Amino acid sequence: MTMTRPELAKLVGTSPLDISRIERGEKTPSAHYVILVMDILGLDRTEVEIALSMQDPTYKLTRVSQSRYGAQS
Predict the structure, then answer these.
(1) I want to staple 18 with a disulfide (CB 3.0 to 4.6 A). Which of 1, 14, 31, 66 is the partner?
(2) Residue 38 host element (H or E)
(3) What angle do CA 46, 35, 43 make, to 5 degrees?
């Protein structure tokens, strides 16, 4: 994708610095964040959950009813 950190941050409702810290492994994203980014990028939730569970069997994506990071318009 050709999306920049500032563009993604705006869609998620966070800062480009937070995006960068997550990318570098300095900050662990919540399941909420992961689901929002997956939806923005059009990723399959089942495939992502399988990949995450291979790294950490305790990491489970949850059903999210509303955005915690800000409304998308």
Answers:
(1) 14
(2) helix 31-41
(3) 50
Question: Tokens 């069997």 identify what position?
Answer: 57
CA 50 remoteness from chain centre: 15
The rounded distance, in Å, linking the Cα atoms of 50 and 8 is 24
Using only C-alpha atoms, the chain has a radius of gyration, in whole angstroms, of 12
CA distance 42 to 31: 16
Q: What are the tokens at 48?
A: 């992502």
pLDDT digits (tens, 9 = 90+) for 5-35: 999 999 999 999 999 999 999 998 887 888 8
> CA-CA distance, 24 to 18, in Å (whole number)?
10
Residues 5, 8, 13, 18, CA torsion sign: negative
**What amino acid occupies position 15?**
S
28 C-beta neighbours (distance < 10 Å), count: 11
